[in-house]
Amino acid sequence: MLKILTTKIELQEWKAKKTDIGFVPTMGNLHQGHLSLVEKSFRHHQNTLISIFVNPTQFNNADDLKNYPRTLTQDLELLELLHKTYSHKELVVFAPLDASEVYPTNFDTQILPGKLATKLCGFYRPGHFSGVCSVVYHLLHLAGAKSAYFGKKDYQQYLIVKKMVEDLSLKTEIVPCELVRDEKGLALSSRNNRLSEDQKISALNLIHALKALEAKLLTDDYLALETLKKKILSEDKQFEYLEILDASNLEAYDQETQNYLIAGAYFVGSVRLIDNIVIKRGTAQHA
Ligand code: PAF
User: Which contiguous run of DSSP H or E holds residue 64?
Assistant: First the structure.
């Protein structure tokens, strides 16, 4: 049976008796990508905590926050089903009904991530990563976990959270997890539910562009790579950005770069999708 906690106090009581907790923070509307994080935690910890909380401070658009899908009943069903395979492990859901169960009353302190948050999504969504860091900071404190699992679909989020944890000497290890795609290659995202079947096909333009750049990158011809990027951007106006950066620090790549991040944000109608590929220098292998 799943245990569902809705208050900070319940969570504090539960974790007080545990030593080995793996934590998966989410905003709900769970899909196979989230479930793969939960499974990873099951494999490494006796106790897994998943939070389901739509964090208002990370939305810079009121409509986006209002329209964010809230599907708790369905989420709990998916978790119940997965838990059947791991019934020897404990699974606890923290689903606060109110932001006051996550943030302290009258809290007035922001966490301001640095350079990493000025690039890619951070450039186009000012304040977003500050909101993410603030909520993750509070959730990590509440969870008291050994490890927390983050999907690499939100690669920039993973890097920023990892840096925050290092810079603020938090005790939880941040574990990156593989991005999950559907059979056609579309990266799984809660936002995919807002796409029609035709739009799902248009959405594949994003991964096709990333793959074309990957193929060019593997030839080590940087000039041809940049030319192709410009061509894609000039031919398809649905891209918000399409960039190739050093995957370790999101700076411009150069001859020394070991791992490349090819990342894009793409609009299909009003739905904004992101995706990325990380590749190792000089190999066809995904890092
Ligand atoms: O990736 C997400 O779903 C959110 O940004 C997170 C990490 C749960 C913080 O609200």
Answer: helix 62-67
φ and ψ at residue 56, rounded to 5 degrees? -65, -30
**Is pTM beyond 0.90 here?**
yes
Element (H, E) at 107: none
**Residue 46 carries which side chain, given as an amino acid letter?**
Q
- For residues 70 and 83, what is the distance between their CA atoms, to the nearest angstrom? 21
Residue nearest to atom 2 of ligand 1 (CA): 26
First to last CA, the chain: 37
Ligand 1 pocket, residues with Cβ under 6 angstroms: 25-27, 55, 58, 132, 135-136, 154, 157
Q: Counting atoms of ligand 1 from 1, which one is nearest the CA of 132?
A: 9
Catalytic residue among 31, 34, 128, 141: 34
Rounded distance from Cα 129 to ligand 1 centre (Å): 10
User: How many whole angstroms from 224 Cα to the centroid of ligand 1?
Assistant: 36
pLDDT in tens for each of the 287 residues of the chain? 799 999 999 999 999 999 999 999 999 999 999 999 999 999 999 999 999 999 999 998 898 899 889 999 999 999 999 999 999 999 999 999 999 999 999 999 999 999 999 999 999 999 999 999 999 999 999 999 999 999 999 999 999 999 999 999 999 999 999 999 999 999 999 999 999 999 999 999 999 999 999 999 999 899 999 999 999 999 999 999 999 999 999 999 998 899 999 999 999 999 999 999 999 886 645 66
